[in-house]
Amino acid sequence: MAFEICVKAAVGAPNVLGDCPFSQRALLTLEEKKLSYKTNLINLSSKPDWFLALNPAGKVPLLKFDEKWVPDSDVIVVLLEEKYPEPSLTYPPELASVGADIYSKFSTFLKSKDENDGTEQALLDELYALEEHLKNNVCFNQSINQ
């Protein structure tokens, strides 16, 4: 089954893929799962009537999935992952949050006026957890360890 997807066209270049990360995420999911698709590049400053008829909000990406038009890259990725689970593009839940607290730990550490309050160690623990995760879970870890 071939999909049809509407994505952002580049500003000033209607035949070139635009810089919308949401559109690119949906396209990357289709590519990684090796699913065939037809791309419609949408000029967001002059949206075609047929596109607005399908999607009155006028947002991209928009994917034709099981004869229905589905907006929102999060929804699109979940639907594709559920219907086509191989190759899996999701992290197991226990790994999904690795590194998620680095920014807040770093910010807390920078604002701290007490060097013995544990904020430095909390940041180091978070960085260590991310480093271990990357060593053990990234497909290119050979280049990291060399």
Can you give keywords for this protein?
146 residues, alpha+beta, five-stranded mixed beta sheet, 7 helices, elongated
In short:
This protein has 146 residues and is an alpha+beta fold. It has helices spanning 21-32, 49-54, 73-83, 93-96, 102-111, 119-137, 141-145; strands at 3-10, 13-17, 37-42, 62-65, 68-71. It contains 7 helices and 5 strands, in the order ββαβαββααααα.
Strand and helix map with partners:
Elements: E1 3-10, E2 13-17, H1 21-32, E3 37-42, H2 49-54, E4 62-65, E5 68-71, H3 73-83, H4 93-96, H5 102-111, H6 119-137, H7 141-145
Parallel strand pairs: 1-3
Antiparallel strand pairs: 1-2, 1-4, 4-5
Helix pairs in contact: 1-3, 5-6
- Please indicate the percent range of residues in DSSP E strands (runs of 2 or more): 15-25%
Overall pLDDT confidence: 89
Terminal CA distance:
43 Å
Could you tell me the number of beta strands?
5
Radius of gyration: 21 Å
Structural class: alpha+beta
Taking the sheet with the most strands, its summary is:
5 strands, mixed
| Overall geometry | elongated
Helix content: 40-55%
- Uncertain stretches of 5 or more adjacent residues: 140-146
Name the helix and strand elements from N-terminus to C-terminus, one letter apiece. Answer: EEHEHEEHHHHH
Please work out how many helical segments DSSP would assign.
7
Structure write-up:
The structure is a single chain. This protein is α+β, with helices and mostly antiparallel strands. The protein contains seven helices and five strands, in the order ββαβαββααααα. Strands 1, 2, 3, 4 and 5 form a five-stranded mixed sheet that branches. The longest helix is centred in the C-terminal third of the chain and has 19 residues, at 119-137. The protein is elongated, with a radius of gyration of 21 Å. The termini are far apart.
